[in-house]
Amino acid sequence: MARVSVEIKDHIAHVTLTRGDKMNALDDAMVKGILAAGAQVADSDARAVVLSGEGKSFCAGLDLMSFMSMGQSDPETWLMERSHHDANEMQAVSMIWRRLEIPVIAALQGATYGGGLQLALGADIRIAAPDTKLAVMEMKWGLIPDMGGMALLPKLVRSDVLRQLTYTATPISAQQAADWGMVTSISDDPLAAAQALATEIAGKGPTAMRAAKRMIEYAESGASQAEVLLRESAEQVKLIGKPEQMEVIAAQMQKRAPVFK
Fold first, then answer.
1. CATH of segment(s) 4-201
2. What is the largest CA-CA distance in the chain?
């Protein structure tokens, strides 16, 4: 059965994990479904993504049976393969969303553990229900986060917070996650809030939005101040005075929504 659904409407891609009866746990079919959904969105006209999970939990992490089967194979064979740019297949579950040119908003509820948390970290923005529990769960099984968590978490939280989360595998509340920088905001209806934010984003200049995401990624990459300043100018040159920006200005002056071709 399909593990992930994709609906693209009004330039917003609604990507939903559809294994709610299993807390959207990640098995092989789910992993491949997430990667296929990311590729589908990349080839679409979407300007924003809402990433969510059906049922009581966003994603409870790796499916136990999948975890057991992985332990019976040679980990070097599938962990060390760089099959998706600089990532392996499991790391691509989170990194495919970070690599998208458009903003991704994750709506979280219930258990957001292990691989599920790392999937959420691939989004640009995370909106959580008050009952959300988040955990870097891998140490519970004698492992470390290996689905992009160590590429993404250090950009969000302090080193001591990262160490406590990783060393203990203890779930934390949505409020604690927000205080520590892992969650952007808390909402009683995170899906509705994510959809509203995606609608706002999709109404802005799509070329400028892609440039903004590229620019933020570059600025966070460790580039020097001089390199960031130069990249700012280079990105802006591609926007100023172009038809899309002229339409944005006209729409502002005429107090109407812009229309982008």
1. 3.90.226.10
2. 64
162-167 long-range CB contacts below 8 Å, 24 or more apart? 165/135, 165/136, 166/136, 166/138, 166/139, 167/139
Nearest one of 73, 89, 84, 104 to 33, comparing CA atoms: 89
* Number of Cβ within a 10 Å radius of residue 3: 22
**DSSP state string for 165-215:** HHHH---EEHHHHHHHTS-SEE-SSHHHHHHHHHHHHHTS-HHHHHHHHHH
What is the tens place of the pLDDT at every residue in 137-170?
A: 999 988 889 889 999 999 999 999 999 999 999 9
Q: Read off the pTM.
A: 0.92
Q: Would you say 205 and 248 are in contact if contact means Cβ atoms under 8 Å apart? A: yes
Q: In what order do the strands lie in the sheet with 125-128?
A: 4-9, 12-17, 48-53, 104-108, 125-128, 185-186
Handedness of CA 156, 141, 93, 198 (dihedral sign): negative
Domain 205-254 annotated CATH 1.10.12: yes
Among 146, 1, 129, CA closest to 62? 146
